[in-house]
Design brief:
This protein is mainly alpha-helical. The chain is built from 19 helices and 4 strands.
Amino acid sequence: MITFSRRYLLVTLAWLVTRGWVVVLYGFPSAAEGWFDWSGAEWGVVGDVNYYRESLDALATEGVAGTLVEYPVPALLLLWIPYAAINLLGLSGDAFVVAVLAMAALTDLLFMALIVRNRRAEHPRLGVSGAEALWLAAIPALGATAYARFDLFPGIMVGLAVLYAVRKPKVAAAFAAFATGAKYWPILVIPALAASRRARKRVILTVAITGTALAGLSLVLGGWDRLMTPLTYQSERGLQIESVFATPAMVAWGHGSAGYVVDYTEWKAYDISGPTVGALLLAATIASVVAAALVIVWWVLAWRRLGMQQSRRNGDATEETIVWLVLATVAAFLVTNKVLSPQYMLWLLPAAAAGMVLLQGRARRRLGVWSLVLVVATLLTHEIFPRMYGYMLTYNDIGSPWITEVLAWRNGLLVLLFLYAAWRTTRLLTISASAHPEPGAEAEITSGRPGRRRPEPSRS
């Protein structure tokens, strides 16, 4: 009998240690400060949390229509929960920061628990599976930013949508719909969830019901304009300094080229302006259109191919295709966007961890290598923000050249991750149907006898 200590103790201890380190990056417990001593560590990352609190303070006067307009209304309501709780308890000061930290940690713990629960090996080597190791490393790799940004919540919901895409399509669709209600980008994963013919009706119906309810709630609380403000807010922004297409301008700025300026804008972000920025913005727009066309082609192919695969009961091929389709679609949006903030790494990390749960053999090894590169990109992101971010805002002849080169490496890795995900997705969607024989036929081929099957081979 496998005991709890053998199955779960190591991963539990690892989660506590790694997440304890993330909390340390916020600050250290201090009775003198009341909550935490924020002098040092990565206290700067909670600027967004303080902005949430200040915005919610003004909710009574501004109304839903004028509060946190860059986020959908359901996101505002989710942030309002810890705000209402601390006010109900009569707490003040940094209590909201601590409450958001606790909510993020609980969400992270829930995702970790579901990854462990869905293990496909009774007792993984060393007591920790590849998926668990990836998620254990993902959050500390990003640092305190992971718990101080709202993107953790929709990112994890997308990860859960991937995790249950084949086995529980209605559950997956509900997670994707709620993620889209919280931030609009997860709508990109819904067509992948609906690609399987067996699950299509259930996914579409679940998304329609959940999406209509969330949209109706948004209309009632904020009106039509408030429903659309997250889209218009993003469309009017300039070239954010961390985005892929800002890289040439930022490297030029970091090496002292004249004419480039980094400014804090009305969109509460740092943008770059200068001689080549107009051309870079145009290039980003063209790339976004091309990427959108490519994604639509993938969706069309997926709806045809996964319907065929499902009729052959080839669940493994369906899961692998959905995993890569989700990763490639989100990565395409990420690398072509004129905005790229550090928390956007949380758009990919949970989905990759969920994919590591689902895939087996060679398919899992491929995704494992891809995910390792993603973790390296996340570590570089952590180095950029918050550790060395000041050198990207104010020129320093030593720090600025170095950190903009780190930015170039990070963005280069993101482009490589997208290109591989795009190649793998295209291959899976265009491979001949004969490459996916029915499970029974494969058993006969591998064993030489009907009804007897050797251990599952690695899948290409």
